[in-house]
Each structure stands twice: as C-alpha cells, then as structure tokens.
C-alpha cells in the first residue's frame, strides 16, 4: 500500500493552510499514493496553546465547508484520505475528529479523539469533549484503518483494541512540539519517548504505524508563553517497529512510502503475542488504579 504523509506548517490563514494541504494531497496522488494522511487540526493553528472562547469559532459542523473540500480532494485524487477536523457537534459540544474519506469522496468513517490532555500549552480539555465512538477501525478500499489522534498515542489500550478489532494499520495524526525553554537533553528525551511508544504499538500488535506531526513554530496567541516549536519527524514504522521513513524536524514534507500489510501475518507467526495474552488475568485494566 503506497501511503502519502503530509507534514506542514500552519498559520492563522485557514485558506492558505487548506490550499497547502490540497496541493500536497495532489502531489502524493501523482506519486502513486492510495492512502494519504494529514496531521492533526491541519486547517489552522494549534489553538489549544491557551484558553479562549473565541477559538470555538474555528469549529465547523460535520459535514461542513472543510469536510466537503476534503471529500472532493479525495475524489479528485482517487485516494483514501485521513483528515483531522475541529467538529462543532452542537452548541457547547465540540470534538477533535478524524474523518476518513473513500476514493469516491464518500465518508468511510470517523473517529473522535478519546484521550484529551490538559497540560501547559496543550489545554485541550477546554475545547474538546472526549470521543464517544470507541476504538473501532474504519473499513476502506485500502484496508481497515485504526485511526487515533495525538494524545491517544501514549495509550497502549487504544492501539490494542483497534488491533483486536482487525485494524491493519495504526494511524496517528498529531501535533506535538517543544517549548524553546526546554534544554536539548529534555527535547531529546521527549521525542525519544514519543517515537518509542508508537513503535512499541507496532511491535506489540504486529502492525504498521503511521504518525504524522506538524512542523514549524507557532506563537501563543495569548502572549503568555513562548509558543511551541512543533518537532515534525513524522514517521512510518513497520510491523516489528522498524523505521521505514522519518521526516526532518523543521521542513514541510510530502512523502510517499510503501507499506507491506502482508507482513503482519508473518510477524504474528514469529511473535504470537495475541496467542499468549493472559486474558483471564487482565480484569484490573478497567480500573483507574489498583490500590
């Protein structure tokens, strides 16, 4: 399966961001991509750096203008397209929602981000209601896609449930970066942890992982902090966690990589983790903590 990943910078000009994404989708299709994955909240700035009720104006209903734009892009380029939209579900109810479009522009399915962070410069609980669609793969013409979003990437439970329901690949649109005040050693630790845990999902489940991050510096519109320097480094890992492609830190990237989904069968025969799971002993996993 030829997969296109799009790592881009974003500005407050939503039209320019969308135009950049559309051009990159076309470029991926011209290189033979069957599946194209965009980064988290690719239509605009990462507005969660601060809490402001005005930022809810960026949300759109699904379907809405951005939805229709990307549905048409999927159809025109004959690709399965993974998007990431700020969904206005109802007054006061907003979601961070990945919508997957089929090659004919119809909606294949959607996923609402389940794990919502609330950390300095990542104040997502102010904006997003936790997802209520569960961890269910989306069936498409290129296979069953286990689509999750950003903060979900730190949780092996979500990846495992997607795999247990037949996902053939795990996909993470994401937006993560450094504060410029972080020393280099801390930056290295943060990136290493981020990539390692996602490669771990590949190993534990015998599945390829596609992680698409944004790049570039974005200011904190509140002026309180020094902004976020998104660390790029989007990557694709194979079913044993091997890196098939890794993007640079500070460059926009449109890259097509071939993924061999059939390797999952061979890998799971060698490393039969699903066979050896002690499902009789995992009852505690549905608790917050075991005192």
Looking at the structure, what is the overall shape?
globular
State Rg. Answer: 18 Å
Helix percentage: 25-40%
Beta-strand residue fraction? 25-35%
* Tally of contiguous helical segments: 6
The stretches of 5 or more residues where confidence is low (pLDDT under 50) are none
Task: Give the topology, please.
Elements: E1 2-7, H1 14-30, E2 35-38, H2 65-77, E3 80-90, E4 93-101, E5 107-112, E6 118-119, E7 122-123, E8 138-140, E9 143-147, H3 156-164, E10 169-174, E11 177-178, H4 184-205, E12 209-213, E13 215-218, E14 228-231, E15 235-237, E16 243-246, E17 253-258, H5 263-270, H6 273-276
Parallel strand pairs: 1-2, 2-3, 9-10, 10-12
Antiparallel strand pairs: 1-17, 3-4, 4-5, 6-7, 8-9, 11-14, 12-15, 13-14, 15-16
Protein model, in words:
The protein is an alpha+beta fold. It is built from six helices and 17 strands. It has helices at 14-30, 65-77, 156-164, 184-205, 263-270, 273-276, and strands spanning 2-7, 35-38, 80-90, 93-101, 107-112, 118-119, 122-123, 138-140, 143-147, 169-174, 177-178, 209-213, 215-218, 228-231, 235-237, 243-246, 253-258. It has a six-stranded mixed β-sheet. A six-stranded mixed β-sheet has the order 8-9-10-12-15-16, with helices on one face. Helix 3 (156-164) runs parallel beside helix 4 (184-205). It is globular and about 50 Å long. The mean pLDDT is 97.
Write out key terms for the chains shown.
single chain; 291 residues; alpha+beta; 6-stranded mixed sheet; 6 helices; 25% helix
